[in-house]
Specification:
Elements (H helix, E strand, L loop, with lengths): L16 E4 L2 H16 L9 E4 L5 E4 L2 H8 L4 H16 L4 H21 L3 H19 L5 E2 L6 H13 L6 H15 L12 E7 L7 E3 L1 E4 L9 E10 L19 H24 L4 E4 L5 H9 L3 E4 L3 H11 L3 E2 L11 E11 L2 E7 L8 E7 L2 H23 L2 E4 L3 H15 L5 H11 L1 H10 L4 H13 L5 E3 L6 E3 L6 E3 H19 L3 E4 L9 H8 L1
Parallel strand pairs: 5-14, 8-9, 8-11, 9-10
Antiparallel strand pairs: 1-19, 2-3, 4-15, 6-14, 7-13, 8-12, 12-13, 15-18, 16-17
Helix pairs in contact: 1-3, 1-4, 2-3, 3-4, 3-16, 4-13, 4-16, 5-12, 5-13, 5-16, 6-7, 6-11, 7-11, 8-9, 12-13, 12-15, 14-15
Length: 537
């Protein structure tokens, strides 16, 4: 019986678990998680093949996707994964930085714990070092993006973010993303919405065949015979385009062939009158979320009106935003305020698939769509993640225009500054500050190692360069030597580094503050099949 046990276990139900002195075990779990994503950092980062619980295959080196599909169970490692998810929500890029830096902070703290340093001293030192790093970071900005609507200003920053996912295609994709974001950006860039840049994935050809459509793209064919419309006036209906049905059930008594013909003729007259009135309103494209009747298609073709079906209500909303239309609940004649407009509405064949494009010729459409091409579905998914990172970096620049040197340069400069800061502290926390400073080396070391070079030699060279007064020197992944990142155009948004350091520090402090893990008895109910099989074995 539970109350006959001693200690904290006497308060809990049978089956509860207690883990004392869990700091080293938590650090080990986080270090192993960081080891998984760390090798995926940088242009030459290695991909992971993840098969989730639904047997879906992912081949990617996007840390956010890897962590989301891994389903981490260890509570400390789960905290690290949650910090990465918070980074994805806040900035949309830099998740690997959070996991790698957080894992390195905890890994270096392990040495201090084994030396006998109390966790409170480590926590105090980490807090001081983290606050100092965030304070110094703003002074390390190498410039600003003064106008995010200027294509040449944003492309270098987007190229750096995309290169970590799609090295070799970064210039081409950065130009696509820059054009798409600038096209969909409102007059006040701070109101930029990432949802206004959409992606349509069509397998076949190569990534270099991807293109931008200033407007909306739906991956299906038109319903009728009309495939091309210029100066389109678009009416959007949330109902079926068919013969209206009565609200109550009724029975039509037909006694002869003449009655049947007149009944059918009446239906035809009703539908023709409705379609002709819609045509008179100026509408030449109809979009419906439901089905089109055969009779409706016949008259739409006769009046040269294009018919498109979009089943998803989210896509319907995006189309309405793109063309400026209102969704009508009934099959009525639209007013001028209800109609949307676009320059062209075309059906085009891409590979073996037909797509419908609602495009604007000018650079002032409210929606942009990037049509991605690629060999396999996994390639398309990975390119989409790279484009998503680029779009989120553009949004980060609309909030904070400052940029810092990439390629591990800003981290090595922070390492130098914090090492000097540690020497000015006389307490025990100076050891923790020194370890915090050393943790920044992991970025440059990882970039070198995944590129096939000796990480220690590269870090040593960079330390010498930064001590000699070269704050923008980072890792050249091509030859393993140092390179001026700013001159090479390798720059990152300051916001990405700020939130990466802040979240990594906070998750490390949270895990170091834990001195006991208490696991309550799991709720009743049937066990998962995997657990049953394990018990039977």
């Amino acid at each position: 019986m539970a109350f006959m046990r001693q200690g904290a276990a006497s308060m809990m139900k049978d089956g509860s678990q207690f883990v004392d002195e869990p700091i080293l075990k938590n650090i080990e779990a986080c270090r192993e998680l960081a080891k998984i994503t760390r090798s995926s950092m940088g242009p030459y980062g290695l991909c992971k093949m993840v098969i989730n619980h639904l047997n879906k295959l992912f081949v990617t080196h996007d840390a956010a996707t890897i962590l989301r599909e891994l389903e981490v169970e260890h509570p400390a490692a789960k905290l690290l994964a949650m910090a990465a998810a918070a980074m994805q929500e806040e900035v949309g890029d830099g998740t690997n930085l959070v996991v790698t830096l957080g894992g390195e902070l905890l890994s270096l703290a392990e040495g201090l714990v084994r030396m006998g340093l109390h966790p409170s001293d480590i926590i105090e030192g980490y807090k001081k070092a983290g606050n100092k790093a965030l304070e110094v970071l703003s002074t390390l900005a190498c410039g600003t993006v003064d106008d995010v609507l200027l294509r040449e200003s944003v492309i270098p920053v987007l190229r750096t973010a995309i290169a970590s996912k799609q090295y070799g295609y970064e210039t081409f994709l950065a130009e696509l993303v820059a054009d798409a974001c600038i096209n969909a950006c409102p007059s006040n860039p701070k109101n930029f919405n990432v949802d206004n840049v959409r992606v349509a994935k069509l397998d076949g050809e190569s990534v270099l065949s991807s293109r931008l459509v200033r407007g909306f793209v739906i991956g299906r064919n038109a319903e009728g015979a009309v495939k091309h419309v210029k100066k389109a006036k678009v009416a959007v209906y949330g109902c079926a385009v068919d013969i209206p049905s009565t609200e109550t059930k009724g029975t039509a008594l037909i006694e002869s062939a003449e009655d049947l013909i007149s009944y059918s003729k009446k239906e035809e007259d009703v539908m023709e009158e409705l379609i002709s009135n819609i045509a008179k309103s100026g509408c030449n494209v109809i979009v419906s979320s439901s089905n089109y009747g055969d009779l409706a298609i016949h008259f739409l073709n006769r009046y040269n009106i294009m018919a498109v079906k979009i089943s998803s209500k989210f896509e319907m909303r995006r189309l309405c935003a793109a063309v400026g239309a209102r969704t009508l609940a009934r099959l009525d004649v639209p007013t001028l305020e209800d109609l949307g407009a676009c320059d062209t509405c075309d059906v085009s064949e891409v590979g073996s698939k037909n797509i419908v494009s609602f495009a604007q010729e000018k650079d002032d459409s409210k929606l942009s769509t990037i049509v991605i091409r690629g060999a396999t579905q996994n390639v398309l998914d990975d390119v989409e993640r790279a484009i998503d990172d680029g779009i989120n970096v553009f949004k980060a620049l609309t909030k904070d225009k400052r940029v810092v040197a990439g390629a591990g340069a800003v981290e090595m400069e922070l390492q130098k500054i914090l090492t000097t800061f540690a020497e000015s502290n006389r307490g025990l926390d100076q050891y923790a500050i020194r370890k915090f400073a050393s943790s920044f080396e992991v970025v440059a070391r990882t970039l070198a190692e995944v590129s096939g070079f000796n990480g220690t030699d590269v870090v040593t060279q960079l330390e010498a360069d930064h001590q000699a007064g070269h704050p923008y020197n980072g890792v050249n992944v091509e030859d393993g030597k140092s390179i001026n990142a700013v001159e090479a155009g390798i720059i990152d948004p300051l916001a990405t580094k700020f939130w990466g350091i802040k979240l990594a520090m906070e998750v490390a402090l949270t895990i170091l503050q834990v001195d006991q893990i208490i696991v309550a008895k799991q709720a009743g109910g049937p066990k998962p099949r995997a657990d049953q099989a394990r018990d039977e074995e």
